[in-house]
Specification:
Number of domains: 1
Number of strands: 2
Structural class: alpha+beta
Radius of gyration: 15 Å
Largest sheet: 2 strands, antiparallel
Distance between the termini: 26 Å
CATH topology: Arc Repressor Mutant, subunit A
Strand content: 5-15%
Number of helices: 4
Order of helices and strands: HHHEEH
Amino acid sequence: MSQLDLFARTTDPTTSHEAGETIRPYVSGMRLEILKQLATTSEGLTAADLADRFERAWSKRVQQSSVARRLTTLREQGYASVDGTRPGHTGRPCTVWVISRAGREVLAR
């Protein structure tokens, strides 16, 4: 997968690729912010927890699905891992995420 593929599918129209380029700094920043938040707790956080924290901090709505996609990427990169589930806001099980040793090393740089 190329860097461009992270922001738009190869089959998407040019406008989607252009939009993807405009969010590149924010998306990279969000992954870093997720790692920082995961490092603040030993209990782990769900995507909903993180979205709520970002919404309060940034005074801007952050979609849980956006956070979940970044968590998946961080797991694939070895910076975060799943640590079970717990009931979410609706009572349904939610994945709990924790920062990995490699994630902590990234923050220490």
